[in-house]
């Protein structure tokens, strides 16, 4: 029984870490989007 409980805890920790990394990535990209679009010569009216 103890073995299964340990694996479940490890899976939960891995899922939480994945959600955290994805949310950080989303925050960074959303903040930098205006600069990225401007550097690529796109329309600033969409993200500005």
Automatic annotation (TrEMBL):
User: According to its UniProt record, where is this protein located?
Assistant: Cell membrane
A molecular function annotated in GO for this UniProt entry is: transmembrane transporter activity
Membrane topology category: Multi-pass membrane protein
Q: Which UniProt keywords apply?
A: Membrane, Transmembrane, Transmembrane helix, Transport
Q: Name one GO cellular component term.
A: plasma membrane
Q: Where is the Major facilitator superfamily (MFS) profile domain?
A: 11-48
Recorded hits in InterPro entries, A to Z, give:
MFS_dom, MFS_trans_sf
What is the name of this protein? EmrB/QacA subfamily drug resistance transporter
Source species: Geobacillus kaustophilus GBlys
């Amino acid at each position: 029984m103890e073995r299964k409980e340990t694996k479940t805890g490890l899976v939960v920790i891995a899922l939480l870490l994945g959600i955290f990394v994805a949310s950080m990535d989303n925050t960074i990209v959303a903040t930098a989007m205006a600069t990225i679009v401007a550097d690529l010569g796109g329309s600033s009216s969409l993200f500005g």
